[in-house]
Amino acid sequence: MDQIVNAVCLHTAARHEVPLQAVEVELLYDEQYSFSAEVWVHGRSRFLIEANLKEAIARYVLDEYGRQVSSSQIALDVEDEMWADIHPE
Asked: What Pfam families is this protein classified in (predicted)?
């Protein structure tokens, strides 16, 4: 879960050209709406959908591990907390 939060924070900070400290993230899961996150940038709230989360994770994996993955390879799941699994194609 921490790596997903890190991925969303880093991705959001880069996209909005703000310092990392200006970004806060809360991961969400709802059976009806699936995976999402509420993100605050300088106190302004916005919601990210599952596709946005996968985009952030893919960028994180590329930047941190040098491995290019597509969103179709990323599976999100939740038990006690949210986690992501990357499947080879």
From this structure: DUF2653 (PF10850)
Residue 27 in 3-state DSSP?
strand
Cβ atoms 33, 17 nearer than 8 A:
no
Domain, as residue range, for 26: 2-86
Tally the domains of the chain: 1
How do beta strands 44-49 and 74-78 pair?
A: unpaired
Residues forming a β-bridge with 25: 39
Burial of 40 (0-12, 13-18, 19+ CB in 10 A): middle
> pLDDT of 33-88, one tens digit each?
899 999 999 989 999 999 999 999 999 999 999 999 999 999 999 988 888 988 88
CB neighbour list of residue 23: distance below 8 Å, 6 or more residues apart: 8, 9, 12, 13, 16, 39, 40, 41
